[in-house]
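> call design_seq(struct)
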């Protein structure tokens, strides 16, 4: 039974089971604070960019974690993740990193292949929406 501050999961039997560790829908209770992040890229504060998608995705999720923490939230409050990669073969590596960071209540998730980012070295970008009742 969901409490007044819990998110409600929606995976209707008439919709195909999610392909990975995410949910088709989440309902956030009234009164929740909403946090929306910009897309985070795989670049460290010292401007270095690792050459592989796993390391870049880890940087993206670490940056998101820092933003969540500053807002008084954590990955358990993330309700939506949008991931963007430049190569289809990077899906598994990206999803492995994503799944390490998301909480027990899996967010809704979208993953797209894009033609590129602002700099050719970037392989992945991640943005999230989080909601929490304080």
């Amino acid at each position: 039974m969901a409490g007044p501050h819990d998110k409600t999961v929606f995976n209707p039997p008439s919709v195909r089971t999610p392909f990975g560790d995410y949910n088709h829908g989440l309902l956030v209770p009234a009164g929740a604070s909403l946090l929306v992040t910009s897309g985070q890229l795989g670049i460290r504060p010292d401007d270095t960019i690792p050459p592989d998608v796993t390391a870049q995705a880890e940087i993206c999720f670490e940056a998101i974690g820092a933003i969540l923490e500053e807002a008084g939230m954590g990955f358990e409050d993330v309700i939506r993740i949008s991931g963007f990669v430049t190569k289809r073969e990077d899906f598994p590596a990206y999803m492995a990193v994503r799944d390490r960071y998301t909480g027990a209540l899996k967010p809704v998730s979208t993953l797209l292949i894009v033609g590129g980012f602002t700099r050719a070295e970037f392989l992945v970008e991640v943005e999230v929406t989080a909601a929490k009742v304080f």
